[in-house]
Specification:
Strand order of the largest sheet of chain A: 5-6-8-9-7
Structural class of chain B: mainly alpha
Order of helices and strands of chain B: HHHHHHHHHHHH
Structural class of chain A: alpha+beta
Number of helices of chain B: 12
Radius of gyration of chain B: 22 Å
Distance between the termini of chain B: 50 Å
Strand content of chain A: 5-15%
Largest sheet of chain B: none
Number of strands of chain A: 11
Order of helices and strands of chain A: HEEHHHHEEHEEHHEHEEHHHHHHHHEEH
Largest interface: A-B, 38 and 44 residues
Shape of chain B: globular
Largest sheet of chain A: 5 strands, antiparallel
Helix content of chain A: 40-55%
Oligomer: heterodimer
Shape of chain A: elongated
Number of strands of chain B: 0
Helix content of chain B: over 70%
Chain lengths: ~500, ~375
């Protein structure tokens, strides 16, 4: 049963201090107000969230200053009538709501004779500012990255999409963490049913704590056993803004610098922001490269095994002899050799990620150069296997999204076993299984392989932005994520069109 | 959100159906027909392909004519037109056809694997793996299956066309003669063989509830038929021109042998046959999948199954045993040949003709009754 805030300040203080007993980080101050300082108010906040002790320059300080100029009898009326001056939310009626308001990082204000509590924003929780995104690096385009503050992140999106049609729907996840989750979208572009479906999925579970968007992602994913992520992640506000312009919905979670974009497809994981900032030839070339890389990151070691162990007739004799010569003295079968190197490489990668910056680079050098060379010299692995593993790693690094690349890294081991045991037949079986799986996969109603499949849903327009990114003039329509009737994103006015025809 | 937005809307597009049928028909026909023609008709195989195509067009016309009167699904139409018992008999006929088709596709796919990809493998191991894959593909309905073939279509088509183009310089046009040298019976047998390979088009009848534009299904089938025939004609002419009739007769899978012989200019790979086997692997798998999916669909209707996948497992098991039987007992292959020629082929045409006839009689009677009642009134 929620505890109502009453006009009796002492009772409110007693209830509040009971609720927050043994919480030394919460500062509770009783302050005299009114012309004759005969009335009392009670201000509570989390220690670091309010900027200065005397509050002279802060909103709270100015507010208190005003209250000290008014007669005691007029204080409650004044506060009631001027709530909007200091508070960004409606006054709280219950103690639980007020406590929740304070835990978002603001100060709470109780006044004797006033049966509400005000939430007064100040500095808020400490957090990083806007830093460069550590993943999804681009050659051209903004370097701003999301931070841990959800308010900052929504502002970074707003900065790019200055339209009243951009909506931010707020919800809370986590029984104990009460994590703020925002859904950002353009109202007239999205399919309302997708938004409804996302909200339904968010309400499908009750968890005690959602400390990162990753937890929300996992709990709302439909196919839990698929290695492929069904939500796209980004740390770049421009990528998120671009997705919103495509009629997709961005989910921001407080305390997480990673935004979730949904729905998503295989194609969208391969795209990067600068695909659209660079000329179409460069964008098409690099994108095709990324497609090939995503495929090779999964199958390259397996194909090497299939060709060298089962189908040697495919390779030219000279190459075959050189491969055989390089393997001389290696005591392990080729499959074991590949597995040793791949596991060693994954260990190096993991160690490199966990160690602090400079040490992480050292691990790369020690692992890549010294251990690799020593393993070859000691005849534990052949030089060609080192090349195969290194190329595979390069391919996985070329995939722009980490979670998506991880799917290929995991499947790579499946292909190593399949091809090592069954040769090219194993490769075909594995490929077919992955294709069947991907073709069943969907993200909020959109087939994962769109627009390679189901391109008719968008009148085959989306095919212009796949392996090749056609010139922007050709990409006049938004992708399939956008609702029918709102798909035009580029229009030339008549004069421009005439000029183009003239050229 | 409109229905077509959803991935699990149980509807597939015409492009998906077209590609699915091209792969279904192309795989088996391009693999086996050249061998059959070389043994029977030589260069006249070309005429067999064209006559066979004409037969296919007739079949598709019958399909289209029946579909015109279909209000919902094929089984419902059969029941309305010919009654419960006759329609059940027809459904059993279709069930047998699709199960044996999947068994034969499994047999061909496994022997292809054993011959070209994994000679030291075991039939049972390979067949079980393939059946598992096919069941996995069928479990999620038709869309997933259709999407697989939609996406791989050009990945298979482009290398195939490239290889065929590269094989053209090796063609000796004198091998294309003599023409019109075969006897009528040989031409007839060759043509019926082609028509047998076109029988999977009957699956179109069952696709009406799954298609976004059911009224265009038959046209879609005709387009697929034209593509497959064109491909088969080109492949046959190239094979005949490269090997000649006699050499081709002794080759097991001439088209795969050809793929092994083509030299890529400045090529890294010395032989491409293993890589190109992927084309037929995927195409035969498509046919295996079609057989199992359609067989399951028919069995489900017959058993009134609603939710469980019992029918799918039964059909998959039957396909496995049929494939294994064909692999281990040669005579079963001969029986299957007789079944295809004497029962499946004429049966498919006759069922469609009979349904049309029944429909005309039924509507005629209704019209007659209506007229009588009007007069009485």
């Amino acid at each position: 049963m929620p505890i109502q805030i009453t006009p009796d300040l002492q009772e409110n203080i007693k209830n509040f201090e009971e609720l927050f007993s043994d919480c030394e980080d919460i500062k509770k101050r009783r302050i005299k107000v009114g012309k004759n300082l005969k009335s009392e108010c009670y201000i509570v906040y989390i220690e670091v969230t309010v900027s200065s002790v005397d509050w002279k320059d802060s909103a709270i300080g100015k507010f208190l200053g005003t209250l000290r100029t008014l007669p005691e009898t007029q204080l409650a009326d004044y506060v009631r009538e001027n709530v909007a001056d200091v508070s960004d939310a409606n006054p709280f009626e219950t103690l639980e709501d007020a406590a929740q308001g304070m835990l978002t990082g603001d100060a709470l204000f109780f006044l004797d004779g006033y049966n509400r509590a005000l939430k007064i924003p100040d500095k808020g929780y400490p957090g990083r500012g806007v830093y460069e995104a550590e993943s999804e690096k681009v050659i051209r385009g903004s370097n701003e990255g999301f931070s841990e503050s959800i308010k900052l992140n929504t502002a970074l999106i707003r900065k790019r999409l200055r339209s009243p049609h951009v909506k931010v729907k707020e919800t809370f996840v986590g029984r104990r963490t009460n994590t703020n989750v925002d859904l950002v979208y353009i109202k007239d572009l999205i399919h309302p049913e997708i938004l409804k479906k996302i909200e339904e999925r968010l309400n499908e579970f009750e968890i005690d704590g959602a400390l990162d968007s990753g937890i929300i992602e996992q709990l709302t994913e439909k196919r839990k056993f698929s290695p492929f992520p069904q939500f796209q992640t980004t740390q770049r506000p421009d990528r998120a803004a671009m997705a919103i312009l495509e009629g997709r919905i961005v989910l921001l979670s407080d305390n997480s610098p990673v935004a979730l974009i949904l729905p998503t497809t295989y194609n969208s994981f391969i795209q990067t922001s600068d695909d659209y900032y660079s000329r179409w030839e460069i964008a098409s070339f690099t994108r095709t490269l990324r497609y090939v890389a995503s495929f090779l990151a999964m199958v390259f070691p397996g194909l090497y095994l299939a060709m060298t162990n089962f189908h040697t007739q495919l390779l030219p004799t000279d190459l075959l002899l050189s491969l055989a010569a390089s393997r001389q003295g290696v005591p392990f079968p080729a499959m074991v050799e590949i597995l040793i190197m791949e596991i060693a490489f994954e260990l190096l990668r993991e160690a490199g990620v966990r160690l602090p910056g400079a040490n992480g680079n050292t691990i790369g050098i020690v692992g890549g150069l010294i251990i690799g060379q020593a393993a070859v010299d000691a005849n534990i692995v052949s030089p060609i296997v080192v090349i195969v593993v290194a190329l595979t790693a390069l391919c996985s690094f070329a995939v722009p999204n980490e979670e998506f690349a991880t799917a290929f890294r995991i499947l790579k081991f499946v292909f190593i076993f399949l091809c090592g045991l069954l040769g090219f037949f194993g490769f075909l079986v594995g490929l077919l299984a992955v294709l069947i799986h991907l073709s069943h996969l969907e993200s909020f109603g959109i087939p994962y392989l769109t627009p390679f499949v189901g391109a008719d849903l968008s009148g085959y327009q989306d095919e212009r932005d796949t392996f090749l990114r056609l010139p922007l003039d050709f990409l006049k329509k938004r992708p399939v994520y956008t609702r029918q009737g709102a798909r035009t994103r580029l229009k030339f006015n008549r004069e421009n069109e005439k000029n183009q025809e003239g050229k | 959100m409109t229905d077509e937005m959803f991935a699990d809307n149980l509807k597939i597009s015409l492009r998906q159906i077209r590609r699915l049928f091209v792969l279904d028909i192309f795989g088996m026909s391009s693999l086996l027909l050249p061998g059959i023609f070389s043994a029977m008709t030589g260069a006249d195989g070309l005429f067999c392909l064209l006559i066979g195509m004409a037969g296919g067009i007739v079949l598709l016309w019958l399909v289209a004519a029946n579909m015109k009167y279909m209000e919902d699904d094929y089984y419902g139409y059969m029941k309305d037109t010919a009654g419960q018992i006759v329609s059940d008999v027809f459904m059993v006929f279709y069930f047998l056809y699709f199960v044996t088709l999947s068994g034969y596709a499994l047999y061909e796919l496994t022997t292809l694997t054993l011959g070209w990809l994994l000679p030291e493998g075991s039939f049972d191991g390979i067949a079980v793996l393939l059946i598992f894959l096919a069941v996995y593909a069928c479990l999620r309905g038709i869309e997933g299956r259709a999407r697989v073939y939609e996406i791989i279509f050009w990945f298979l088509g482009v290398p195939l066309i490239l290889m065929l183009v590269l094989a053209i310089p090796d063609v000796n046009s004198s091998y294309w003669t003599p023409i019109v040298a075969s006897q009528g019976e040989q031409l007839f047998r060759g043509s019926t063989s082609v028509m047998i390979f076109l029988l999977p088009f009957n699956a179109l009848l069952f696709l009406r509830p799954f298609c976004t534009k059911p009224e265009k299904l038959a046209v879609c089938g005709q387009q697929a038929l034209l593509v497959v025939t064109a491909l088969n004609v080109v492949i046959y002419l190239i094979l005949l021109g490269v090997f000649g009739q006699n050499s081709m007769g002794v080759l097991k899978r001439p088209v795969l042998t050809l793929m092994g012989m083509v030299n890529l200019p400045g090529g890294f790979f010395t032989r491409q046959d293993v890589l190109m086997t992927a084309v037929w692997f995927f195409a035969l798998f498509a046919l295996l999948n079609t057989g199992i999916f359609q067989g399951t669909l028919v069995l489900r209707e017959l058993c009134h199954e609603t939710k469980k996948n019992f029918s799918l497992y039964v059909v998959a098991a039957l396909a496995f045993f049929m494939g294994k039987g064909l692999f281990e007992h040669r005579f079963l292959g001969e029986i299957y040949d007789i079944y295809q020629n004497c029962i499946a082929l004429p049966g498919m045409y006759l069922i469609l003709l009979a349904l049309l006839l029944f429909y005309q009689i039924r509507t005629g009677r209704k019209a007659g009754k209506g007229a009588t009642m009007n007069v009485e009134e």
